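Hi all, posting the design record for the shared folder.

TITLE: backbone redesign
STEP: 1 of 1
STRUCTURE INPUT:
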């Protein structure tokens, strides 16, 4: 019995890619036969890139052990492999439409650039020291989302901007706690709740 579970998928005009929990990658075209290739570890993120024809010609696969595999579409031939000796891959971003270079973000916050045009094929640019949720770039900046926080760096790793949305949520949580504390106090004064319940009241900031 086949008990594989699809954990990642990518829909393309010509078909779709399904990544299974056992490392299997399946190309399922709208027309024609399916093709499969098995990677060593389960995939955590997928990025499809186009070629000169304008169609998707390859896909980058990041896995749970910090590896990146570049696979051709539709033949599923392995074009390149990169081992970052890092934590799981969280995000992959193409540097440009005319280059094979990509940016990679990991769960430990490491930011790498990979590709045949990169010296040594891979370079660790810098580390955010927080898990990367998504990543995008242009010629001058790299924008990284980490949870509710957004960071903008230049290509040397110098931080340019930082927007911490957690502060907004913390303020809202404090306001909710204060409203709850006042409500509990009023109910206690009216004799509707025992005094022991007041121990559960948050402090009013």
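Okay, here is what came back for every position:
SEQUENCE:
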């Amino acid at each position: 019995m086949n008990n594989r579970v699809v954990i990642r998928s990518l829909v393309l005009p010509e078909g779709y890619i399904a990544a299974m929990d056992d490392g299997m990658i399946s190309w399922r075209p709208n027309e024609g036969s399916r093709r499969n290739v098995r990677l060593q570890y389960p995939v955590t993120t997928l990025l499809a890139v186009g070629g000169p024809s304008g169609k998707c010609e390859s896909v980058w696969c990041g896995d749970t052990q910090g590896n990146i595999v570049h696979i051709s579409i539709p033949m599923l031939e392995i074009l390149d492999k990169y081992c970052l000796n890092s934590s799981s891959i969280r995000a992959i971003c193409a540097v440009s439409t005319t280059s094979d270079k990509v940016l990679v973000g990991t769960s430990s916050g490491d930011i790498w650039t990979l590709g045949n045009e990169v010296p040594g094929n891979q370079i660790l640019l810098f580390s955010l020291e927080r898990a990367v949720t998504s990543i995008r770039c242009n010629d001058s900046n790299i924008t990284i989302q980490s949870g509710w926080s957004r960071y903008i760096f230049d290509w040397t790793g110098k931080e340019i901007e930082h927007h911490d949305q957690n502060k907004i949520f913390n303020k809202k949580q404090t306001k909710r706690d204060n409203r709850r504390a006042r409500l509990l106090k009023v109910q206690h004064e009216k004799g509707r709740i025992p005094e022991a319940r007041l121990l559960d009241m948050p402090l009013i900031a």
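COMMENT: Residues 87-164 form a domain with the Hemopexin fold (CATH 2.110.10.10).
Let me know if anyone wants the other runs.
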